[in-house]
TrEMBL record:
Organism of this sequence: Lysinibacillus antri
SUPFAM superfamilies: Homeodomain-like, Probable bacterial effector-binding domain
Pfam families the record matches: GyrI-like, HTH_18
The protein, known as: Helix-turn-helix domain-containing protein
PANTHER family recorded: RIGHT ORIGIN-BINDING PROTEIN (PTHR47504:SF5)
Amino acid sequence: MSWVESIQKAIDYIETNLLNTSLSIEQIAKVTNSSVFHFQRTFSILTDSTVGDYIRRRRLTLAAEELINTEEKIIDLSYKYGYETPEAFTKAFRKQHGITPTDARKKKGSIQSYNRLIIQISLKGAEPMNYKIIEKDAFQIVGVKRTYNCQNGENTQKIPVFWDDVHADGTNNRLIELNNGAVNGVLGVCIVEEEQKSLGLMDYWIATNHEGDVPEGLLAYEIPPSKWVIFEVHGPMPHAMQETWKKIYSEWFPSNPYQPAGSAELEVYSNDDPSKTDYYSEIWIPIK
């Protein structure tokens, strides 16, 4: 089963179990035989949505359809679709649809409908992707890290804040000065340790390739030897990086005989103005 088929199978599993209020991302990820982090990451890259947001939107779409087409009581629909109180249901319903459940029942206004997802891939992109495949021995990174919960989308929300912090406190400039290894630039590194997989946790590092003693106040991590596919990214941040990730998963992996190896993935940022139209960066993915 390919990774594309795995993601679609996971979506089918979600749809079958939408009314199961104990449905968890960990359960869904097991369908794809991948960690919570890698499933959540792939899902969000392809759909521009977290798994939790998709489930919530689909439930509220079905709830709205029932309100309009049946006589089911609002309080019963609240519990049916996973809300502990009618008030919580009404708040979530209004946030998505812009109207209350009562107004929806009276057909006062329109509802915001989210349809079931079907993953579609492109085996040939309109624009070429520049990449190379290398094998590289283990190397050391030094930097700072924070741990995030992937199950609730915390990583997506808080990693940009982390970057703001390291720019504000001077850490980013310090990492630029410490860069003395073969990987040139400041790195954003996603790492999921074995003991984190069942908990849906990940470590995110802002670091640099530094050979030698670990500088005071920083942490060190050894990136294992790997076969890497390295993609060029051209354009301003964050748009160019986000678009390249999407092309990698929707175009490159489906048309090549490789899969992500599941170890540390790198975003490599050059020491230049990230808002420039020709800003250069890279994505490094370990493959098997």
